[in-house]
Amino acid sequence: MKEKGMSIMIGLLGKEPKMADKSEGGLLESNMEQCPLATQDMDINKGNKKKAILTASYGEVEDGEGKCKACEYFNTELSDCGVKKGDGYCEIFDFVCNQENGCMAWEAMDKEDEEMYDEEMENE
Are the beta carbons of 61 and 105 closer than 8 angstroms? Predict the structure, then answer.
């Protein structure tokens, strides 16, 4: 039987690769520790979404007003946590929600936040 030699893999990391922090004990930690648990665990997200449906009628908005994307509690600054474009994190019910849906807990975003959200959407 012929022995195989050592294999070397090379990858391109760019100028400044994003590296995880080294924690005590030598294990690597990621920035995910700062993410809400519901953005990392789909079972928790699903349960919290069901709670929002039952307690605040979360879902499609028929009249076009009161959409999550214009809600005070809609957080779009969690893309590092896996929240994709068009979605946001609902800070009241602790789940990832769609910007086009709404619920009874909806509160208007203040003008400054609304302008910042509009700029974010234009830049993407």
Answer: no
Sorting pLDDT into bands at 50, 70 and 90, what band is 8?
Answer: low
pTM of the model: 0.66
* Residue 40: pLDDT over 70: yes
Please report, rounded to a whole number, the percentage of residues in the chain having pLDDT higher than 90. Answer: 51
- For residue 112, count other CB atoms closer than 10 A to its CB: 8
Q: Which architecture, in CATH terms, is 36-123?
A: Irregular (4.10)
- What residue ranges do the domains of the chain occupy? 36-123
Buried b (16+ CB within 10 A) or exposed e, 42-60: eeebeebbeebeeebebee
90: number of Cβ within 10 Å? 25
